[in-house]
Amino acid sequence: MTEPVTTRISVRGCSIALMRGGAGRPLLFLHGGGGAGWPPFMTDLAARHDVLAPEHPGFGASDTPDWLDNIADLARFYLDLIDQLDLHHVDLVGHSLGGWIAAELAARNTRRLGSLTLIGSAGIHVPGVPQVDTFLVNDEQLIRSMFDSPKLIETMLAQAKRPELEDVILKNRTTTAKLVWQPRGYDPHLAKWLHRIDVPTHLIWGANDRIYPKEYASAFQRLIPGSSVTLIPDSGHVPQVEQRAAFVAALEGFLAAKRAAA
Question: Cα 224–228–234 angle (5° rounding)?
Answer without folding.
Answer: 125
